[in-house]
Every structure is written in structure tokens, then in C-alpha cells.
Design brief:
homodimer, alpha/beta, Immunoglobulin-like, Rossmann fold, 3 domains, six-stranded antiparallel beta sheet, 12 helices, 24% strand, globular
């Protein structure tokens, strides 16, 4: 092996541990616990790297990356906080290289960057906490998608779904952001636990949530074994509006029919919502505005459509605002005032206002983050299907 | 921000891309496609790191890590192979730091190491390939576990499960290895696609597969907010046999009752199998041998029990071998001849043989790998419940 000493050490350590585990013996060697969340909401992060020259912690609870200190056993660590209770992405920067925390199994599913997640619990359980209430089921589903491809989605069914074979439910189609996957609203957004808690408290209607993978163009290229052109690398790219249309075709002609055939859904527009974050927010607005006969609820988190696009493609929304205001039971737009899309989103709201299209907006602190998305989801989940 | 130039560049690039995506404009900057699997089964791996001094590729398809070459745009790359079709874990070693491939969303769920996965398709679809057959459903489930904790598991239900509300199914309880999670048999083992294919070909009986998290001691400590003692770090550790007993208690008193209450199971020993890999293989043998009145099928992949443990705890298995041979419809043990547990596993088989306990064994090439686990699972899935 031409690997460096650290890697060789870790490899040997792993093999040794596995042997010893199998024999029922204690493991040896330096082990790392990370992160450790303390009672006072301070958090200690640790990373084993005897040969590294510099290790930093980067996290969405920090204004800037902080240096970690090397201990005797080659374990770098830092304690930060107190940190406001929430779930935050973080990573280590090891001699300039961004890495997940190898001691932590909680990760951020994404096609581009790799982050770990730290969960700082509140004194009272936060809205996404795992509490002792009935839990829904989260399923990974394949479905026959456009161009003969196999689509993928994650589906939440509410507590009791399996029990009453006659009961039907409304459906929230929920689309995540650029380079996110169909897992992100589940693994980072924790929408299953949020809904479990809201339903148990009588604050949200029991609903099915369908979370598709949002970039069928990239998936199709992958499944056909085609070389991906550079504008597909990011699984979005050059032709975002056409790609959004492709997603919309998949949603309307493949995904929704599949869901309504295979789940016990209430299959009318009053029981159908569409929502999404970032790129998924744009897709939400486009799919929702083009199909107002199919969706009565539209939830846009941290995204917008430009005035030129509204004028070229979605005149139907504002040319007869009274009809839109009657048809749409909810048009929701929320954004953080530190979001890099904040100004554009405010312009979009101003556009809607000038056109007398009703909406509900929520401007919060914070940026283009999943901490905000969680709170937006929790707000809208309490409005839907009522 | 005190981050290094590379990180800052990536951060700005990400922000720029996200803005441009939202505006429907093409992204700019260096983008990486990795991995790229070519028609001739060669594979190109790429990693953007303008400031790195050395980048290597480490993968389970290689005998040793190979050096990557830096290109003009700061993208390091290497082409290897042809590689035998399969799914392999790999990572990059960037100036000595082991990292996942940031361009690849397919990862290896694990509590210690972080790896990406590359899927080299066969000329004919491999047993785990996504093919155009009816697909089962994979669900993430919570359940009330021991000591008031909330347990987690992943559950496969076969195609058609949702359709026929009267049909009941046998259940395979499947436990993954040390530091693996309840996701590993799904995400790395692809047991859902393997079963979809085998069931469609009439080679396996439709069955439910329940994949619990295998280390309740660590989960309970975590949920209670207890500091984890060092022997829990690896979520196994010092007291493997007692931990295995704790798992067994959870399995027999909490998990199986929950599954049989909430899924349409055939609830008798002939329709109950237990299996597992590595630490999960040890847990399989212990839970199976201690509860032969509950399980008629035992599948041990790349694991064993020592002669002292058999003699101290599982005399019931071999003191009346005729009864065991009649009771157990399958006692399966498989291992690779390069596995670091190979010798101990052969000793275990010799022990069983000397005691006249029947078993089926499969000795393959290869080591303690998920490539082997997939093939073992596919073999045993065709034997179960027949």
C-alpha cells in the first residue's frame, strides 16, 4: 500500500477492531467521539489527524471557520457555542480539504458538497425532534418516469396510514434544491418528524408527502449511460427553464398518476399541494402556475420567478387576479433576509402585489439554509388542506 | 471568512451557480464529473483541488491506492480498469486526508469511515441492477425499543404488498456490520433491487426484509444524552457479547412484535429468518442459536462464533444435532478466502462438522467486502422459505 501512515494506521486500526469485535474483545487505539453536544449547548468537535498541519471547523452556526487544536493523541478538537438549538450542517477543513466528520453517521445528502449534521436539542423538544408520538413511515419508491427511465422518490405516509385501508389523504409534492437529492427533505429537513409532531398536536392534517428527485434530465442521461454534458454536471445548468419543464412533465404525466394509483390519495386539486426550496421553489412556482387546475396550494421556500419569466410564461396567474385568488387556497413565499435571493424574492412579491395576486409571505432572519427551510415547512404544513 | 482560497472559491462558485440556476442562466466555472464509467469498463475519477500537493484514489477494486494527475484547471484525475462489473466503495486521499467524492451522491452509510460508491454495470444486468421489473418498497420506520428508546430500521416490502390486503409474507431479519447503520444493506447491499430481480424471475419467494440498527446500546446512550464511554464509540466495543445480548433482547421483545403487529407477516418460525454480515453475522448466530424455536433459517455472512463461546453458550445447538438438523431448514455460512476472518470461519465450520451439525457453506474469493455480501445475500434469498 502506498497510502500515507495515517491512512495505513486507520486501516489497520479498523481491521484490528473488526477482528476484535468479532471475537468479543475490546477495541484499542485512539477513538474519536464527535460531535459531543453538552448540556449548556456548547458543542465539541473532534477529528483524528496526527499528520495534518491545520484543521478547522466550518459550520452554519459559525460566522467563519474556527481553528481546531491538536491534542496529544493526534486528535484535533474545538468547543464552540453555546449554539442555538437546531440541526446544522458542518464539515472539517483539513489542510484545505473539506471533509465530513468520519465519526458521525448523520450526513447531508447532496450531489456536490459533503457535510455532516449536528443536532443541538432544545430544552423543550424542537419541532423536528423525535418524540414519543405515533410515527409515520418514510419510503423509498421507484416509479416509471419519462423517456423509459426509472424515477426515484421518498414518500412520507402519516401515522395510521397502514391501519385504515379505506381512508384517503391529501398529497404534498415537495421538491428540494439544486444538487440536493430526493433524500434531502427527509434527512436534513426531517419533515417526517415535523409532521409526526404537528399531527399528534392536532396542528396539521394527516397528509402524504411525496419528495421526488428534482432533475430528471441528469438522471436520464445517467441511466442511458450517456456522457453528461457539462451543463448537466450540476444536474441543473444551462437550460434551467427547459429542465424545469421536463421536471413538470414528469411530475404531471408520470409521478402524480403513479402516486394516485399506488397510494390512497384524495385525487383532486383541493387535496394537492406543491412546494419546494431554492431550485425546487422555482420548479414549484412553474409547475403550480402552469397547472392551477391541478394544485390549490403552492409553497415557495427561498425562491422566486423573475418578472420577465412571469410576463413571458405565467400571464394566466395575474391577468385575472380574482380568478387566481379564488382558485389558490394558498400561495406562500418565504425567504430569509440574509438569503442571497432575498432581493429577487422581494421583487417577486412586489410584482404579485402590483398585480393584485394574493399571497402569504414570511420574511425571517437567516440565509439560504435548511434551518430556515425546516421552519418554513412547519409553518406551511399547518395551513395546508384546511 | 478565514477559509483557504480553494474553499472560498468553491463557496463563491456555489453561490454563483445557485444564483444563476435560480435565474435560469448557465453555471460557469470548473465543474467535475466523477466517476465516469466508460463503455470498456474503464473508469475515470476526478477531484477539484487546485492547491493540493498529492491526490490518490483508493478503492476496493484496486490492490493499492493510485496517484492522480493534476490537470490545467486544478482537476486531478485518473483512469483505471477495466474494472470487473460490481458496486465498489472508494475515496480520495487528498494530501493524506481520506474524503468522499464530492461530485458523487452515492455514499456508504457508516458511523466511522466515509466512502463513495461506483457502480460498473455488467453487459447483462447484474443481480443488483435497477431493471424494468415490479419494484418493492423500502421504508424507514421507527419503533418503541428497549429502555424507552426509539429504535430505527429499514424495511423492504415486496412488489404487490400494498395491493393485496389479505396476503401475508415471511420475514428476513437482516443485521449489518460494525459501524454500519440500518441503511447499509439498502444503500450498499442493494437488497431491494436484488430481491425485485429474483422475485420477478421466480427465483426467490416474496418476503419482507427488516434491517434494524444493530447497536442499541450506543443509540440508547445517544438518546439519553449520556456521554458515550469509549467502548461505545465504535458502537460495539468492549462488551460485544453483552451488547449482542442487548440487541437480541431488542430483536425478540420489541422489534419482532412491532413488525408482526404492523406488517402482514406469517408469524411462525418457518417463516422467520435471521441473517447478517460481520458483527451482524455474530449477532445472527447468537440470536438464532438462542431462539431456534423462533427461527428456522440462519444466514451468517463473513462471521463465526468461537469454540469457547459455542461451548459456553450454545451447547443446545450441538448436543442433540439430529434435533438441530431437523429444526433448522438452513444454517448458512459464507466467507471469502481473503477475508481476515477466513481462518476463524473455517474453524467454526470444522466445529459444526465435528459436532454433526448440518450447514451449507460457500467459500468465495475476495475479502470482507460488500461485493461479497451482495452475492451471499442473493444466494441465500433463493433458498429461504422454500
Amino acid at each position: 500500500m502506498s497510502t500515507k501512515p495515517l491512512i495505513r494506521l486507520m486501516f489497520l486500526g479498523t481491521m484490528l477492531c473488526m477482528s476484535l469485535f468479532a471475537l468479543g474483545q475490546p477495541p484499542t487505539g485512539p477513538f474519536v467521539i464527535s460531535p459531543q453536544v453538552h448540556a449548556d449547548k456548547k458543542v465539541t468537535f473532534s477529528y483524528l489527524a496526527p499528520d495534518a498541519k491545520e484543521v478547522k471547523l466550518s459550520g452554519q452556526f459559525l460566522k467563519a471557520a474556527v481553528s481546531m487544536t491538536k491534542g496529544a493523541s493526534g486528535i484535533w478538537s474545538v468547543t464552540v457555542g453555546p449554539v442555538k438549538p437546531d440541526i446544522y450542517p458542518y464539515s472539517f477543513i483539513v489542510d484545505g480539504v473539506n471533509v465530513m466528520d468520519p465519526a458521525n453517521a448523520e450526513f447531508f445528502p447532496n450531489e456536490r458538497f459533503k457535510g455532516s449534521l449536528v443536532d443541538i436539542p432544545g430544552d423543550k423538544p424542537l419541532i423536528h425532534a423525535v418524540t414519543d408520538v405515533p410515527h409515520g413511515t418514510v419510503s423509498y419508491q421507484s416509479y416509471p418516469s419519462i423517456e423509459g427511465s426509472t424515477g426515484s422518490m421518498v414518500v412520507y405516509t402519516p401515522p395510521g396510514y397502514e391501519k385504515d385501508a379505506a381512508k384517503k389523504y391529501p398529497v404534498f409534492y415537495l421538491i428540494s434544491g439544486t444538487t440536493d437529492t430526493e433524500e434531502t427533505f427527509f434527512k436534513v429537513g426531517r419533515i417526517n418528524f415535523i409532521l409526526d409532531n404537528l399531527i399528534a398536536a392536532g396542528k396539521a392534517k394527516p397528509m402524504i408527502v411525496v419528495m421526488p428527485y428534482g432533475n430528471p434530465a441528469a438522471r436520464i442521461a445517467e441511466q442511458k449511460g450517456l456522457p453528461k454534458p457539462s451543463d448537466l454536471i450540476s444536474r441543473e445548468g444551462a437550460d434551467a427553464v427547459n429542465r424545469s419543464k421536463m421536471f413538470e412533465t414528469d411530475l404531471m404525466t408520470k409521478l402524480i398518476p403513479f402516486v394516485e394509483k399506488n397510494y390512497r390519495t384524495i385525487s383532486n386539486r383541493d387535496a394537492r399541494a406543491v412546494g419546494g426550496f431554492s431550485r425546487g421553489g422555482g420548479q414549484t412556482l412553474r409547475a403550480g402556475f402552469a397547472n392551477m387546475d391541478q394544485f390549490a396550494w403552492i409553497c415557495c421556500y427561498s425562491a422566486y420567478l423573475s418578472t420577465p419569466e412571469m410576463e413571458s410564461s405565467y400571464r394566466n396567474v395575474y391577468e385575472n387576479p380574482d380568478k387566481t385568488n379564488k382558485d389558490l387556497k394558498l400561495l406562500w413565499v418565504s425567504v430569509g433576509n440574509e438569503d442571497f435571493l432575498y432581493n429577487q424574492t422581494v421583487e417577486f412579491l412586489d410584482f404579485l402585489k402590483a398585480k393584485r395576486v394574493n399571497y402569504k409571505s414570511l420574511i425571517t432572519g437567516g440565509g439560504h439554509t435548511w434551518m430556515n427551510v425546516k421552519s418554513y415547512f412547519a409553518e406551511t404544513a399547518q395551513l395546508l388542506f384546511k
